[in-house]
Each structure stands twice: as structure tokens, then as C-alpha cells.
Amino acid sequence: MVEIEGAVERISYYDEDNFFTVARLAVRGEDETLTAVGYFPSIEVGEVLRLKGNWVLHKDYGYQFKVDFYETLVPTTVREIENYLASGVIKGIGPVTAKKIVDMFKENALEIMEMSPEQLLKVEGIGEKRLQTICASYEKQKETREVMLFLQQYGIGPGLAAKVYKTYGD
Q1: How far apart are the C-alpha atoms of 51 and 38, rounded to whole Å?
Q2: Which of 45, 55, 136, 167 is the most exposed place for a label (fewest CB within 10 A)?
Q3: Residue 148 domain-assigned?
Q4: Model confidence over 66-109: pLDDT tens digits?
């Protein structure tokens, strides 16, 4: 099994019923991209992922990385953090607000959101109501990731884990 880390650049296909996804990833530390295929119940442009799987040759689309397991990684660089926040994965934060947050908090932006989100009120354009939206959305994303990681540690692959999550929730 091969392990690759990268940031989601584009989602080419997403099936809302079974979560089958075709995505383009920028490989961490390299100047190349790859096409990843697999079951991702919650995936957004800008997310940083660790993928485990194997290369397959698709008759029409060429080489693709077939994902058996994945986990969402915490973005570590300022660029990764800004791209993650700008992706829309967290309601209430778009590209402009993401830039403001990262400009103010740098590499600590996600830690601030996790540990003391009230500090986001210092960012121009974020008031109490918007902060509530951001916090609720951030918690929902966190719950989804935690459930998926929990199921995968017991050998439940992303496809089945996605079905379990969709059926039973968190």
C-alpha cells in the first residue's frame, strides 16, 4: 500500500448518495498533482489529506490513485491554512475572511479557532453572529472527521464508513 499526502485542488466528481469522489491533489513537497478516486464523505478544496491506496490504470483516464483509507491532516503552512479556510469548508469564512484571519494569526489560526474562537472577533468583518456560524460549522467538520477516523482505525474503509456515518450520524 502506498501513502501520499496532498492538498485538494479540485473536485471533479462527487456522488452525494455514496460519496464516490474524483479529486485532483497537489502532492505535498512536490510540483506534481495526481487524480485520487475513492469514497470521501466530507472533502473540500483546500483540505490536506493523507491517502493510503494503490495506483490503478483506468482505461479512459490513465493512472489514478485508488484510495483505500484516508485521513484529514491539519494544514501546517500559512498557505495551506489560508487555502483550507478559503475553500468554504467552514461556513462564514470565504477567501477574503480567510486571508484576514491568516494575516492576523499566521500559523496559529486553526489553533485559535479550536481553543479560543472568541479571538476571531478581532478580525474585521467577524461579529458575534458570524462567529456563531463559524464555530458551529467548524465543530460539525471536526465531528465528521473524528467519526471517520474512529471507524477507519477498526479497518472500516471510507466507503463503508461513509454509509455508516450517513445512516447513523455522529
Answers
A1: 10
A2: 167
A3: no
A4: 999 988 887 888 988 898 888 888 899 999 999 999 999 999 99
Distance CA(66)–CA(130), nearest Å, equals 38
DSSP state of 123: S
Q: Judge whether 71 lies within some domain.
A: yes
Report pLDDT digits (tens) over 117-163: 999 999 999 999 999 999 999 888 777 777 766 776 777 766 677 67
Which residues face 66 on adjacent strands? Answer: 37, 54
Quick check: helix, strand or coil at residue 12?
A: strand
16 within domain boundaries: yes
Domain count across the chain: 2
Whole-model pTM? 0.71
For 6, the domain range is 2-75+158-168
Mean pLDDT of the chain: 89
